[in-house]
Amino acid sequence: MLLLPLCAADLAFRNISLAYGPKSILSGLSGSAKEGRLLAIMGPSGSGKTSLLNSLAGRVPEGKKKAPSLLSGERYLAGSPLLPDEALSAAYVKQEDLFFPHQTVQETLSFRVRLSHPELGPKAHADLVGGLLESMSLEGCKDTIVGDARTRGVSGGERKRLSIACQLLSAPGIVLLDEPTSGLDSYQAERLVKAVKRLAEEENKIVACVIHQPSQVVFDMFDDLCLVSGGRLMYFGPAAEAKAHLQSTGYARSETNQVGSAEFLLDAVSVDSEDKEGSLKRIDGFASSVPPPPPLEEASEADGASQKRLALRPRASIFRQFRLLLARSWREATRNKGTLAIKVVQQVMTALIYGSIYQLKDTQSSIFDRFGLLSLVSIGTVNLGMAGTIRAFPKERKLIIAEQESALFSTIPYFMAKAISEIPLSAGLSCLFGAIVYPLVGLDPAPAKFISFLQSTTLISIASQSAGMAISSMSKSADVALALFPPIVVLQIIFDGKNINPANAPRVLSFLPKMSIVRWGWEALSINEFTGLKFSSKERRGRVLDTGESALDQFSIRGPISRATKPLAKILGACWGLSIACLMGTSSRYARMSPP
Ligand SMILES: Nc1ncnc2c1ncn2[C@@H]1O[C@H](COP(=O)(O)OP(=O)(O)OP(=O)(O)O)[C@@H](O)[C@H]1O
Questions:
Q1: Tell me, what's the pLDDT at 59?
Q2: Which of 92, 273, 337, 485 lies 20 to 30 Å from 265, alpha-carbon distance?
C-alpha cells in the first residue's frame, strides 16, 4: 500500500492520538484529505471515526475532570501547520441536525446567507440561496418547513442536505461530514453522497466523510479511504485499491472474495466474536503493514491564497443580526400552532374555572376572596410563564450554541430578539385571560383598573418567562432546569407576603421576598383592585374593613402600584442580564492538540 503523497493543498494530519484518561481512542493516525477528492473515514462502530474527524476539526470535547481528553498530533493545512487549539475553518456537518422547526428550507438558508454575507445585496443573496438549493437538490422542498420529531417537515435526506448547504455558507473550502448517510434509505444515501462528490469535484473542495456501512454504490463514489479499527490505521490510500491491499497481506474471506469491497473491508477489520484471538492478530497485521507517512511539501505562495479562501467570514452588524433574529423568532413563535393552541386553551380554561367559582361583591367576606383570587392569578401566571419557557428554551439553547460556532451572530442581539418577539404573544394571552376572567368574577369594572390589570398580568408573565430563561441558561441540561422549577415556584409562593411573616423566616432567606415574582405580582394586582373600593359593614363580625386601603393595610401593602411593578421590572432586567451572561459563558470547550 502507498500512503497518498501529501501535497500543499491538502489537509494533512500526522500521528493523531487521543485518550480519555487511561482509555486510548486513537493511536498515531496519519493521512490527508485532498482538494477535489472525496475521502471516506470507515471502520467498525466505536473504532474512532468521529473522534478522528473531531481531531481534524479541532473540536475534540475537553472531556470530564476524571477522564480529560489527551490529544496529540499535528495538522497541516495547505502545507502550513495549524495551531494546537485552532478550530479548523471548515463546514462541519455533525450527526445531529439542529434546526428551528418552523422555518422553511428557503428561510433557513436565507437567514444564514444574509448573516454570513452581509456585504452582498438582496439579488446576490437570492442567487446564493438558489445556487445552494440547486447544488443540494433542495428546490422541490424549498417552501416546506424543516420540522422536527413533533412537526412533520422535510425528509431525512433533505434535512441532511440542508445541513450541508447551511454549513457550506460559513466556510466553503473544507467540508467534514460525520455519518451523513445514517438513517437514510439507500436511494437517499446515494443522492447525498453524489451531491457531496460534486462539491469535491466541481468546486475543488477538501471533503472528508465518516461513513459506517456504505452500500457498494456509495463506497465506489469515494476516491480515498482511511480505514480504522480500534483507533489504529488499517489502510490509507485510494479506495479502489484497499481490497487488493488487504488481500495482499494474506487475508481472504472464506466465502469467496466475490463480496463488494465495502463489506469485505469492514469484515476484515472487525473483531469476530467467535475467533477473537485470530481476528485481533489479523488486525495487528494490517496495522503493522501501514508505512510511515511521506514528507510534506513546502507551502507555496499560491497555497497562501488557498488558506485565505478558507478563513471565516466577517459577521453582520449588530443591528442586522437583531433584525434577522427578531424576524426568525417571531416566525417561530407564531407558526408553532400546536403550542399556541395549548396556551390559548390553558388561559381560557383557567379564566372560566375562576369565573365559575368566584362571584365578588362588596361584602366583608369578599375582601378575602379577592385577595385569594388575585394571589391565584399571580401564581398561575408565574407557573405558566416559567414552565413554558423551561420546557422550550433548553432545546433552543443547543441550537444557538451550534449556530454561534459558525460565528453567525452574537449573544446579545439573539437574546434581545428572542425576548422582544415574545412580548406581543404574552400580552395577547394575558389580555385574553383578563377579558374573560375580569367581568366573570366581578372585579372593579372601572376601565382604568381593567387596563392596569391587563398590564400587570402581562408584566408578571414576561418577568416569569425571563426567570425561566435564567434558570434554563444556568442549568446544564433541560432535566436540571425542570428539577429546579418546582422548588423555585414553591419558594416564591411561601414568600408571597402572606404565607409567612418575614421576621419568622430564617435570616439567610431574607432576600427571597424581594425576588418573589408571585409576591410582587399579587401586590400589584391587589393595589390596583383595592385602591378606592368601599365595602359594606353589614355582616359585622370582628374587625370591619370598610375601604380597600384598610384591607391592603392588613398585609402592610401600600400604593401606588409602581411600588410593586418596579421590583417586577427589576427582576425582569436581572433575569435577562443573568441569562445573557450565562449564554455568553456556555460555548463548547475543545481540547488542545499537543505535539506528538
Ligand atoms: N468523552 C468520551 N469519554 C470516553 N470515551 C469516549 C468519549 N467519546 C467517545 N468515547 C469512546 O471512544 C470510542 C470511539 O468513539 P467514536 O464516536 O469516535 O467512534 P465511531 O467509530 O465514530 O463510532 P460510531 O460509528 O458508533 O459512531 C468509543 O469507544 C467511545 O465510547
A1: 87
A2: 92
